[in-house]
Amino acid sequence: MSALREQNIETISAHEAFMGQSVIAKGRDTSTDTLRRSTPRNKGRGATLNPSSRYDTHTRHVFDDGWQTLDELPPFKTEVQIEKPKTIITKNESPDLHFDRSINPYRGCEHGCIYCFARPSHSYMGLSAGLDFESSLFAKPNAAKLLEKELAKKNYQPRTIAIGTNTDPYQPIEKQWRVTREILEVLESANHPVAIVTKSALVTRDMDILARMASKGLAKVALSITSLDRKLSRAMEPRAATPGLRLKAMRDLSAEGIPVSVMVAPVIPALNDHEVERILDSAHAAGAKEAGFILLRLPREVSPLFRDWLLNHYPDRYRHVMNLLRAMRGGKDYDAEFGKRLKGDGPYAWQIGRRFEIACKKLGLNETRRHLNRKLFTPPVVQGNQLSLF
User: Rounded to an integer, what distance in angstroms lies between the CA atom of residue 357 and that of residue 346?
Assistant: First the structure.
């Protein structure tokens, strides 16, 4: 038996799947999606597969029984469940990251980015890292109240909180749930510094809060731009804002005095790495003052999901992309070693890094790094806390 649980594999027909006899985890069909290429089930989604969670003891594989019932299976629709965590601030000690705490208002992400390194986290919920990750979502409506309590703790020491480091805080469901905005309201009232990472133009909705915080040195926003090619962007990030809207969001934020940076992430060899200079140039023209990049990461389930996507969308580039990537990852699809996991290793990775640095220098990006203000922090007074009177 391997480190993961031994899985029993059972094969079922498409008719059985249609009749509701496929594997169900929390009400979701998690059967391996052999039906992916010929049906519209994943239309508007990033993943082409929906493999079982690595913690499941059983997996089932759908096959075509010849009755065209694959075409009758319903598409994956976005469903949102409520998650009630006990704490909302996540701490980390990674030497690769410039922050030690973060908040994720949502679990799963409707943007459906095929390369998202957060996909494997859905396995902890008994769901698939594939289509489930982008269609079976979890919102944390009590996040603002939890945050208020954590900030009010006597021994709390303020440091920049990063929002959007795992899943996007401005994914489409934020329009309805508004969890991110409620979090920002708590942070503003406490004068607590915040750094946001998103690929959504919805961030401009909260410019009123962000502008007030930025005037005190408390806020900055990074927009992630993977490609300026609309076709490639749509295929990789089907429900994220178009590249043009992200650049417009940069201009709008910058015009309001909110510090803006660009994340060229992920850089994928032989797919979008030739756009690094163009993205930086466009972002600089839109008001970005800082920039960063991350090499494609394929941890756990992300690797087979990305490889299947690549075979579906860019079959002629498959070998070249994967060979270059493995050359930067010590011959593997992914190397999680600190110091290498974000930038890669080897000649090709070195070349990408130097191109990025040269382009930034020419444009004047990263000449100064904006550090947010921690000195204005005022612990919130939690309603109902009698000890706050003393």
Answer: 17
pLDDT per residue as tens digits for the range 27-56? 444 444 433 343 466 777 878 777 777 777
**Which region holds residue 66: left if phi is over 0, alpha if psi is between -120 and 50, else beta?**
left
Which amino acid type is present at position 75? P
- Alpha-carbon distance of 303 to 280, in angstroms, equals 27
**CA gap 326, 59 in Å, rounded:** 29
Radius of gyration of the chain (CA): 22
CA dist 265 and 276 (Å) reads: 10
The predicted-structure confidence for 219-260, as pLDDT tens digits, reads as follows: 999 999 999 999 999 999 999 999 999 999 999 999 999 999
Residue 384 CB contacts under 8 Å (≥ 6 apart), including other chains: none
- Kindly report the CA angle at 18 between 12 and 24, in degrees rounded to 5? 70
Q: How many other C-beta atoms lie within 10 A of the C-beta of residue 173?
A: 18
The secondary structure element, H or E, covering residue 387 is none
Q: How many beta carbons lie within 10 A of that of residue 342, not counting itself?
A: 16
Q: Nearest to residue 295, comparing CAs of 223, 235, 349, 232?
A: 349
DSSP 224: E
Token pair of 132 as six digits: 């489930």
**Sequence ranges of the domains in the chain:** 8-72, 79-363
Residues 6+ apart with CB under 8 A from 39: 70, 71, 73
Flag whether the pTM goes above 0.90: no
Taking only the tens place, the pLDDT of each residue in 179-220 is 999 999 999 999 999 999 999 999 999 999 999 999 999 999
pLDDT mean across residues, the chain = 86
**Which residues, in sequence order, are bridge partners of residue 300?**
none
- Gap between the Cα atoms of 174 and 108, Å rounded: 12
Architecture in CATH for domain 79-363 = Alpha-Beta Horseshoe (3.80)
What are the distances in angstroms from CA 10 to CA 6, 58, 144, 227, 336? Answer: 13, 8, 44, 40, 33
